[in-house]
Amino acid sequence: MRIVEASLHLVRLPLVHAFQTSSHRKNHLDHILVRLVEESGAEGWGEIASPSDPYYCPETTETCWHIAERYLLPAVVGADWEHPAELSRLWSKVRGNRFAIAGVDAAGWALWSGVRGVPLAKALGGTRSEVVAGVSLGIEPGYDALLAQVQRQVDAGYPRVKLKIAPGWDTEPVRLVRESFPDLAVHVDANGAYGETDEELAVLRGLDDYGLLMIEQPFAPRNLVAHAALQRSVRTPVCLDESIDTVDDLRTALELGAGRVLNIKVSRMGGLTPAVAAHDLAGEHGVDVWCGGMHEFGIGRAANVALSSLPGFTLPSDVSASAKYYARDVIQPEVVADHGIVTVPDGPGLGFAVDTAFIHQNLLKETVIPARQVR
Prior knowledge:
Layout (H helix, E strand, L loop, with lengths): L2 E18 L4 E14 L4 E6 L12 H16 L21 H18 L4 H5 L5 E3 L2 E3 L5 H13 L4 E5 L6 H10 L4 E5 L8 H9 L8 E2 L7 H10 L4 E3 L6 H10 L4 E4 L1 H4 L2 H13 L3 E4 L6 H11 L22 E2 L4 E2 L2 E3 L9 E2 L1 H6 L1 E8 L5
Parallel strand pairs: 5-6, 6-7, 7-8, 8-9, 9-10, 10-11
Antiparallel strand pairs: 1-2, 1-16, 2-3, 4-14, 12-15, 13-14
Helix pairs in contact: 1-2, 4-5, 8-10
């Protein structure tokens, strides 16, 4: 295959409900959409779902735009390749910058599977026609608002709810949610907000009393030793997110016993290619995996749905309906969840049509790199 043109499109969409984590609050998201065009005219779309600020990871929208425009797209335009897994060799000198790489990698998979007329899920090795979706809820202004949000998701049929926690917003909201929803699958996510003081460790260990599905990323990304120590002291599985950027990180975590669950995010790990490799390695070691999200627009959400169809994704993934976050999405039809179940598309490529007119209505900037620029 040969890509003859590539483009970047920075798009802003408002959230239907403001979302707050342990580090920041957001009312809208700016994501970069990647378009690759093959010499036949076929297109493949991917999404760079990086945060705008360097709180979740070092990358931002601005850094991703620079890396994609300056290094990644010039590397792929005009190059010959046969399989998406080969694309990484084209930018092999670029270190880190996994969010930026993820959007180009996913666009390559969408293009390749679309040209061959096979669904992206099947191309990745997926075996399911449906996947179970969960939802992620941010830190709310008060307990009543949180309970109302949980009730809304339960009424929508979602079987699992993730609660963001932070020091000072942890034990009490978890207790109230558990008392109000005793049969609901609940897990918590700290985004690395906790330290190793006696008080903070006592709080985390105390969460063992609430029958949680998992405690996700309590400590800083590189602190695998603390995660391993906590896992030894609690029954609840510890889940790793920000700690696992690469398959090598996963190997280290497995050796240390730093957690029993892995959140595989396409964006964080640098695309679908390493995400599938992480899924395979986790399965070899009996580690449960689920697909996390970065509030992706429909293009990134479609890739997550396809990935979640792989057999090792045994826990509900963050592939909830588009309407959970956006009044209108950039794909048609939008992702829909029926009582927490999302159908895996059986059409070629992403299985959704990209709404280019709507993209241009919400466009902040774009750039196009034709083949002649990189000759």
